[in-house]
Specification:
The strands form two sheets. Strands 3-2-1-4-5-6-7 form a seven-stranded parallel sheet, with helices on both faces. A six-stranded parallel sheet has the order 10-9-8-11-12-13, sandwiched between helices. Helix 2 (about 65-75) crosses helix 3 (about 90-100), helix 7 packs across helix 12 (about 320-330) and helix 10 (about 280-285) packs across helix 13 (about 330-350). The protein contains 14 helices and 13 strands. The protein is α/β, with parallel strands linked by helices and about 375 residues long.
């Protein structure tokens, strides 16, 4: 059975990592093809199976030409199941129906920069109509599930929540690698390394992250900041650190195809986003035994137990509310919270559970197709 995955982009992101894992774990059962609408296929390095195909697609500049090209592409590939992802791939839903594809699973993992604080009503109108053409809407968070029910008025049987999962045997603590990476970055054992990993764009609310770091007073106390990732905010963020006199205490390492070594080098993970759904990096860093301090957005209140395996604060809380737990985290308490964070991932967010739920859904539709 052929499955076509249509994605807005196939860069190095959390959603793309989930797709790669799903493909790797089911490549002996299904024939997978990937269509990246913007031509970016960086994440193919995460796929070891050589049988996975990438559909060539050159996106015309004009919308009419783009729609015609996408329709022809869907007609040519003719998958048994079409899986589309996020807002950028919603045109593939209705075009897929026109192309005669019977089973379409649309996946919602979150929103891009334009909808960083709230969704755009014109897009919601389009979603309201288009999502009804899907066989099922797969979401990763309770927030998205509620949005589908209440704002888009989709029936319960049209929505399926499948939480993200990770391989907890892979994402685990490693003291020797932690030491090696810290030494390579110039961090000492006595320093408390705060970390962030993700795309550097406005929705990540990075000004708050810098503000929190500044309030730890790194000039006087041994706090350091490690930033992994790239994006439109990087130059401004570097300039902000420079003007605040923080640059000597901050390490920018850019985008990394393998972030685990850097996550292991952290003592605390900081996430100050205005909007998230179920960020995979949070699960990965928790698996590595690192406690998280985050804003109360998306699925994070369902993942973090405040004061037990991390800390969670309102987006509009004063900066002191984020700084206080940082200053109270002695080494022994950081280790205790990190151990609890890893235990939660092992018990509740296993990769095998996520893959099983996706596979069961696909098998259900395969059975329907064979009738």
């Amino acid at each position: 059975m052929k499955i076509l995955h249509v994605v807005p982009s196939f860069g190095l992101g959390g959603m793309e990592k989930i797709i790669c894992v799903l493909i790797e774990k089911t490549s002996d059962q299904y024939e997978h093809e990937i269509l990246a609408l913007d031509g970016n296929v960086q994440a193919r390095e995460w796929i070891k199976n050589s049988r996975v195909k990438f559909v060539k697609f050159e996106k015309p500049h004009k919308r009419v030409g783009y729609l015609n090209a996408l329709y022809r592409c869907l007609r040519n590939v003719r998958p048994e199941i079409l899986m589309t992802y996020n807002w950028g791939a919603t045109d593939a839903i209705w075009l897929g129906r026109l192309a005669g594809i019977r089973k379409i699973l649309h996946n919602e993992h979150g929103f891009n920069v334009e909808e960083g604080t709230k969704t755009i009503w014109t897009r919601d109108c389009f979603r309201f109509v288009t999502y009804r053409l899907s066989s099922k809407i797969i979401v990763v968070s309770h927030t998205l599930q509620e949005m589908m029910r209440n704002r888009l008025i989709l029936s319960e049987d049209r929505i399926k929540r499948i939480p993200n999962g990770i391989d907890a045997f892979y994402y685990c603590p490693d003291r020797s690698e932690r030491q090696r990476v810290r030494e390579s970055l110039g961090f000492t054992d006595s320093e408390c390394v705060l970390g962030f990993s993700g795309r550097l764009d406005p929705v990540k609310n990075l000004d708050l992250l810098v503000d929190i770091f500044q309030h730890t007073n790194p000039h006087k106390y041994p706090f350091r900041l490690l930033i992994i990732g790239d994006g439109p905010e990087r130059m401004r963020l570097e300039a902000l650190c420079q003007s605040a006199g923080l640059y000597p205490y901050v390490k920018f390492v850019g985008q990394q195809s393998e972030v685990l070594p850097y996550l292991r080098a952290m003592d605390v993970f900081l996430l100050t986003s205005l909007r998230e759904q179920m960020p995979l990096t949070v699960l990965e860093v928790m698996g590595a035994g690192v406690p998280v301090i985050t804003t109360r957005v998306g699925e994070l209140p369902y993942i973090i137990d405040d004061g037990i395996d991390g800390f969670i604060r309102d987006v509009n809380a004063p900066v002191e509310a984020f700084v206080q737990p940082l200053q109270s985290l002695c080494v022994s308490r950081r280790k205790k919270l990190g151990k609890a964070a890893r235990q939660k991932v092992v018990e509740q967010f296993q990769l095998s559970t996520m893959v099983k739920e996706y596979t069961e859904l696909i098998e259900e539709y395969r059975s329907n197709l064979q009738r």
